[in-house]
Design a protein that fits this description.
Elements lengths: L8 H8 L33 E3 L8 E4 L2 E11 L7 E8 L5 E7 L3 E3 L3 E12 L2 E5 L6 E5 H4 L10 E8 L2 E6 L4 E9 L13 E9 L1
Antiparallel strand pairs: 1-6, 2-3, 3-4, 4-5, 7-8, 7-10, 8-9, 10-11, 12-13
Length: 209
């Protein structure tokens, strides 16, 4: 069946015309994004303790004249006359100098804020020895003069204790025991029977207990 359909354009136009109550912005809108906060290791608390001379023992770290010192020897002295005192032998972490110093018994002294961290010796970069924190992978570099004669005992993969003071490395400790592998033995002098061991040994660190 043929027929005609009537269409009202005015009503269609009004339907497509946006309402005056709606507002459009030419600027793009973005949904807020939530990021997880970064996790950081807790800051190291600066520990400064006031000690007395009665607390001195071997291994005590003191700060004297603005420098860190380690007690090597000590002796409490009570003379028949006069006040008691403590005689000590100390080593300066920075210069390596060793001096003798006395403290009046009961006098207040400042403990040096020396702490140690275990780091692994990974490799040598030129004149620098690179130690790495195996948890954070942070590197610490020491010069040859800082390592000194300990270089002959260092082996890649060896765990060492680095001592810090005021954010600087002032010393480091090798493992207590090191197993060595003999790689070369020089023959002793012919007819030399005076020395118990006349062989020259050359060894390399093998691994650490």
């Amino acid at each position: 069946m043929a027929g005609t359909a009537a269409f009202n354009f005015s009503s269609a136009t009004s339907f497509l015309r946006p309402s005056s109550s709606l507002k459009f912005s030419s600027k793009p809108s973005f949904l807020p994004m939530r990021f997880s906060p970064k996790t950081h290791s807790p800051p190291r608390i600066l520990r400064i303790n006031a000690l007395t001379s009665n607390d001195i023992k071997v291994g005590t770290n003191l700060e004297v004249d603005g420098a860190p010192w380690r007690i090597l020897e000590f002796l409490h002295v009570k003379p028949g006359k006069g006040a008691a005192f403590v005689r000590t032998k100390m080593r300066n972490y920075i210069t390596g100098n060793t001096v003798e110093k006395t403290f009046r018994a009961g006098s207040t002294i400042e403990e040096a804020n020396v702490f140690k961290e275990t780091k692994q010796y990974t490799y040598k970069d030129g004149a620098q020895f690179v130690f790495m924190d195996m948890n954070t992978f942070e590197e610490t570099r020491l010069n040859e003069k800082d390592v000194g004669d300990k270089t002959k005992w260092l082996k890649e993969g060896m765990d060492c204790n680095l001592l810090f003071w005021n954010g600087k490395v002032i010393d480091f400790e090798l493992p207590i025991t090191v197993q060595l592998k003999v790689v070369d033995v020089d023959p002793g002098l012919k007819g030399d029977t005076t020395s118990g061991n006349s062989h020259g040994l050359t060894s390399n660190p093998l691994f650490v207990n």
